[in-house]
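Re: [ENG-882] Designed sequences occasionally contain unexpected residues at chain ends

Forwarding the minimal case from QA. Structure tokens:
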């Protein structure tokens, strides 16, 4: 069982520390444990309950009423509330289902959001904030690698399904080559770019993750792309500039790069590449070539 400090609970639930202390003294639903030095800590069960309570309080439920509810009643009200939920509520519900590895709930929330918002807005407004928030858990080792893979694969499955539902591009459509270089495995952002390019009528050759740099020239010779796109998310000992230099030695094609600013800050001003800071930047570049 994982345990969480008050600061971690505040970061994950959005409930302020003074509110937690007030709830602890006035109500029965919150009884944190304490260390030998009297510092509060919280269990997995308490984290999930607080996230559910946060959803209900944001939707007008009085905390005094919630305090009298059983866990079953709370879950029943949550199910009703999420029908007309806010982005914050949907993100909380995704975190809870990820921690519980509840595929049905996780899948249904994503499916509903994609129908309501479309893939682009769902990714930028729900999936990215969700990944940032649950990244707090990953960063403090509160999520097993299996849970991380579970979440990532469910998201990728939805994105591939949305891509497959798009009409196939015309024979003379512009071509873009998308790939992650060696030791890069986080491909959700690249999948969103894949969807956007296909939605704009581009033919996409998607190589996925961990592609050896020396293979790029061979692929370019075969598919003859109009542009290339890579993303760099993971800090590594190998210089990003070294990878980019090796790729750019092989071609003069427009090469667009996006990702974690802390990882790619050394190459953001390189005039040989186009830096993509947000989805709209990519849309603009795709339309300029098209």
């Amino acid at each position: 069982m994982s345990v969480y400090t008050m600061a971690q609970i505040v970061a994950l639930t959005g409930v302020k520390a003074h509110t937690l202390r007030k709830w602890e003294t006035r109500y029965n639903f919150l009884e944190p444990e304490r260390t030998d030095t009297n510092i509060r800590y919280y269990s997995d069960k308490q984290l999930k309950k607080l996230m559910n309570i946060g959803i209900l309080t944001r939707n007008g439920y009085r905390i005094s009423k919630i305090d009298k509810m059983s866990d079953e009643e709370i879950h029943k009200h949550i199910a009703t509330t999420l029908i007309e939920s806010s982005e914050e509520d949907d993100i909380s519900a995704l975190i809870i289902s990820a921690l519980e590895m509840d595929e049905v709930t996780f899948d249904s929330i994503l499916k509903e959001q994609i129908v309501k918002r479309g893939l682009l807005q769902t990714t930028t407004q729900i999936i990215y904030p969700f990944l940032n928030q649950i990244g707090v858990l990953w960063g403090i080792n509160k999520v097993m690698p299996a849970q991380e893979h579970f979440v990532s694969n469910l998201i990728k499955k939805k994105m591939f399904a949305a891509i497959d539902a798009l009409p196939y591009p015309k024979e003379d459509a512009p071509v873009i080559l998308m790939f992650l270089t060696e030791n890069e495995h986080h491909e959700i952002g690249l999948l969103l770019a894949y969807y956007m390019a296909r939605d704009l009528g581009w033919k996409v050759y998607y190589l996925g993750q961990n592609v050896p740099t020396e293979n790029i020239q061979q692929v370019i010779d075969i598919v003859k792309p109009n542009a290339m796109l890579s993303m760099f998310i993971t800090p590594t000992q190998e210089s990003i500039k070294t990878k980019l230099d090796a790729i750019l030695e092989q071609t003069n094609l427009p090469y667009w790069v996006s990702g974690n600013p802390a990882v790619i800050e050394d190459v953001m001003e390189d005039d040989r590449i186009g830096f993509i800071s947000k989805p709209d930047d990519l849309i603009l570049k795709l339309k300029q070539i098209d």
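QA comment: On inspection the terminal residues look reasonable. DSSP finds 14 helices and eight strands in the chain. Proposing we downgrade this to a documentation issue.
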